[in-house]
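Most newcomers find our protein records easier to grasp once they have seen one. Read left to right, the backbone structure tokens trace the chain's path through space. Once this layout is familiar, the rest of the handout is easier to follow. The record below serves as our worked example for the rest of this section:


***
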Amino acid sequence: MSPLTPELYVSDLNASLDFYCGLLGFEVEYERLEERFACLKRGGVSLILEEPIGRTWLAGPLEPPFGRGLNLQIMVEDVRALYAACEGTGANIFLPLETKAYQRRDDTVSQTQFVVQDPDGYLIRLAQIEA
């Protein structure tokens, strides 16, 4: 598991697994189906999905869209292929594919990116650094 592993509450674990594994290329590292829990992995990225049954750590009401105020950036090797796959399935594209330059401390980096919403409304920004 990576040092930072976001744990996302989801309304339907199966729909979320279809999105993250079937569309975005994550794999189930392990799961506890009786707890409606799955740990996913894609490259060096770990992500936990869990339906809020039993014990939960919710700071407030869980209302759609989930994850307001948060977007998860995931670096990938072929962002254009993932964008085409998302478009092909009718996934909710929040920000279309773009290439944008970002100023860092002493240089500028250019990345191609897009933002897609998962079935519960979490914003997932998939990005690739351009050479």
